[in-house]
Design goal:
Rossmann fold; binds S-adenosylmethionine; alpha/beta
Amino acid sequence: MVGHGLFSLIFTKRIPLSCATLTLGCFSLSFQMLESSSVLLFIVFVLLFILLLFVVLIRKNGTAALIWNEIIREKITNFIMNQSKEQRILNFVLQNAVRGDPCSVLDTIDQYCSQKEWAMNVGNEKGLILDKTVEEANPSVALELGTYCGYSAVRIARVLKAGAHLLTVEFNPEFAAIAKQMIEFAGVQDKVKLLEGPSEEIIPQLKKKYEVDTVDFVFLDHWKDRYTPDTILLQVSLRSVCMVTNQNTSPKNILILGAGET
Ligand SMILES: C[S@@+](CC[C@H](N)C(=O)[O-])C[C@H]1O[C@@H](n2cnc3c(N)ncnc32)[C@H](O)[C@@H]1O
């Protein structure tokens, strides 16, 4: 009807042609706008729905929460702050812990990781079992595979007897650099030697390069696919007495923290 009226107006020349073209253009434009705004609205609605689903998933599902926190959120924070999570942990310790006090360093790391960002330290709960196991083994030479930021290295070093020392192995250069600063700040640097490199290369060199004949205590806390091969390597290369791990996928005769003896 509207179209017919417009055409009759144009053909009876009651309005100029350019004006009619403009009116028609306005009509089609507003129709297109209406169409595109409803498409836009639909897209916004779908995105909001996906977001809602994602939030529910993160709250209900541990894996989704881990993916969100460890991959997406952490990458975004790293990008915005131009800094890694491990660097943020170290900075928090440098600003809030007491220099030369290992317990204060451990408490500060625990505080940061429980309140701000989760990190793969052994933590206080398993840490208490680790302390007890080290004290019982009373090692002269202890070995840790997987230093990360140095949390467990500080933990082990602070309960070692006088004259004893810990060798800790880390293949990630960034983590190794952070752990060195953490160990120094905690004041246990005289008891800890950080060996940078993959465990599979370091273990066979322990005897010749680092003059280690026996390790009295081993804490396996690196990637779990290396547990069995590194245990075998340790048995071939050295005499190791007490082995402790943080995971339940380890070889037999190794104490699993929090799970008793296997
Ligand atoms: C679970 S974290 C260690 C946490 C640390 N023990 C603590 O409780 O503070 C595992 C660490 O092992 C290191 N790692 C994994 N495989 C390794 C290997 N084959 N040699 C040396 N380091 C390794 C990783 O880079 C990571 O920093």
